[in-house]
Amino acid sequence: MENAKKIFESIEDLLSRAKFEDALCTIRKMDTSKLAEADYSYYCLLISQAMLSTGDNDIDDFIHKALSFYKKQDNDVLYAKSRYLFGWHLAVAGNFIEAHEVLMEAFVFLKRHDKYREMSLVLNRLAYVQNHTGAIEDAIANLKDSIDINRDLGINHNVIQFSRNLATVLIRSGRFHDALTHLQSKMNELTDLDEGERLRFELGYSLSLAFMGDTGRAIKNLKSAKKYLTSVNVDKSVYHEYLGWIYNLDGQYEKAAKTLKAGVKIAVRIGPESTYVSQTKRLLADAYVGLKEFDLAEKTAREALAVAEKIRERSEIGACYRVFAQVELNRGNGEKAKKRYHDAIDIFLNVNSRYELAITRYLATISGLYQSGERAAMLYLAKEYFQSEDITHYVNLTDRELNYSQAAPIIPSGVGDDAAVFIARDRQMVQLIKLAENVASSSMTIFLTGPTGSGKDRLARYIHERSGRKGKFVIVNSAAIPDSMVEAELFGFRKGSFTGAEHHRTGLLEEADGGTFYLNEIADATPEFQAKLLEVIETKFIRPLGSNVRKAIDIRIIAATNNDLDNKMKSGRFRRDLYHRLNEIPIILPSLKERPDDFLPLI
After folding, report:
1. Buried b (16+ CB within 10 A) or exposed e, 454-488
2. Where do the domains of the chain lie?
């Protein structure tokens, strides 16, 4: 139909210029009753894009019609575009694993036909998924590629949008130096920013300054940027949210509460179940904690959590748990508080939110809920991050808690005649050994990485011998256990549980009960091994083959690898959720070539 074609062209033009509301208004005025199937399928494609672009994810019927039609038509490009929109839909709904698969499929089809603009849109959406699943490096790389593609194509509004998205990823992952550099560069480069766009860049810049401790400059900068504030509710909502956030960071909790209350009213007008509502209410709960109004803090955090859970905003869920921890601590409910801190830390580890993780660890350590070993471990890890971003205020606070002192240059074991001895003069290794000694008595998992010969096995035993654990140090070659033997080897079995089971046998995990379970070559573990190990870490129970009784076990897990796990996680050969469970305390050992000072003690 000729008329439909002209309308479609006008809608495509509006979408290409980011006039999403206008595009949606135009397409909804169309009479679809007389459209041929091909035209109706294209209508479904366009309305799906317009709806998603305006925050409406209710596109199921439309997108499935488009997918079905273009798959039958063998039209790679339009089928790929349908897959892209479907992946976007899945991502917004929080189905990140499926979304990643669908988006990757769309990218392959588009690349085959050199559709670079469309490829950049897929990369941007992939970055959204990766940001929510902790694959931050991938998200950053994809956003940089999408920016480059659109710069080459001269599509300036996409360059602006994707540059903002990159800043958001950098800020949310706690890379404030990189965020400041990126934002300053873009504000200098993109001279034709309109008022709303300029405001959004200034908001990110001000928040990054505040996170790094320069709250005075951040507040001044943000108030100066108020002149760019438009009548758009989203901009007004984010302005109030960020200003309240900065007031919180500056300890001005009354001003924060007043600003955030105003922000909540605006956010609700955008959408009562939007990320703006969830985050602004959670920040308001933080302000109430600062004001010691704990009942209000809990009530507000519960409202924020209800929205965050619905939209699957995991970082906000973790931040709400942290509020609950502080509330329970104030009420004297130590165990509840500790569980909430643990839940928050677990989420921040999984989504790779380094700043929120470090802050939560610090707050947990000053709560008085943790024993010295676990407390020291969390303080060291928090301090390591704060130092990496030059957040001086928190470096000083963690130093004070640690009562930090320089390690001695040579550190022998001194535990038994055949105990592990770790001799080091290299400054970096001395610090790593000091860290190992401080975390030895905690129950947190440790992940050792480093090249062959760097001392991972020796350090694992060294940690065990200083842990105070009375049980065995059980070494497991993760790569050597085939899928068919995983349960029998890990959990053991009872006589008669399978053909050839002529006697009871204790599994490796039970053998390590009360001690340390050392997983060497963990990167080469089979999928079945990974699944069973994750189950044990989460439940702390085992059940031998042939038994109906579960047994609680108390083990400390240390894992080691000389492989690059990033590539294995990208390809799906290693579980990202298991990695985060194992990586509570990461220790990276340099090669001997990188520590020449250690050669002499070894001769």
Report:
1. bbbeebbbbbbbbbebebbbbbbebeebeeeebbb
2. 443-598
Tens of pLDDT, residues 527-544: 999 999 999 999 999 988
Name residue, tokens 């062209």: 9
Interatomic CA distance for residues 597 and 431, integer angstroms: 14
pLDDT band of 496, cuts 50, 70, 90? low
pTM for the full model?
0.81
Q: Say which DSSP state 216 is in.
A: H
Determine the Cα–Cα distance for residues 217 and 223; give it in Å rounded to an integer.
10
pLDDT digits (tens, 9 = 90+) for 556-598: 999 999 987 888 887 888 998 899 889 888 898 888 777 666 6
Q: How far apart are CA 569 and CA 126, in angstroms?
A: 15
What Å distances lie between residue 181 and 151, 171, 211, 355, CA to CA?
Answer: 19, 12, 14, 18
Q: How many CB atoms lie within 10 A of CB 442?
A: 22
SS (H, E, C) 434-492: HHHHHHCCCCCCEEEECCCCCCHHHHHHHHHHCCCCCCCEEEEEHHHCCHHHHHHHHHE
- Given the candidates 3.40.50.720, 2.60.40.420, 3.40.50.2000, 3.40.50.300, the CATH classification of the domain at 443-598 is 3.40.50.300
* Closest residue by Cα to residue 364 from 393, 384, 344, 347: 344
Which residues in 277-310 are b (16+ Cβ under 10 Å) and which e?
bbbbbbbbbbbbbbeebbebbbebbebbbebbee
User: What CA–CA distance (Å, rounded) separates 315 from 467?
Assistant: 32
pLDDT tens-digit map of 448-493: 999 988 889 999 999 999 888 999 999 999 989 988 889 889 998 8
Q: Which helix (H) or strand (E) holds 585?
A: strand 585-588
Residue 501: count of CB within 10 angstroms of its CB = 15
Which residues neighbour 180 within 8 Å (Cβ) at sequence distance 6 or greater? 205, 208, 209, 212
Whether 104 has a pLDDT exceeding 80, the answer reads yes
Q: Would you report the helix, strand and coil content of the chain in percent, each value rounded to 5? A: 70, 5, 25
Distance in angstroms (rounded) separating the CA atoms of residues 492 and 81: 51
Residue with tokens 């169309």: 30
Question: Residues 6 or more apart from 302 whose CB is under 8 A from it?
Answer: 320
Rounded to whole angstroms, the Cα distance separating 13 from 30 reads 16
Count of CB atoms within 10 A of residue 263's CB? 27
Residue with tokens 């008022």: 195
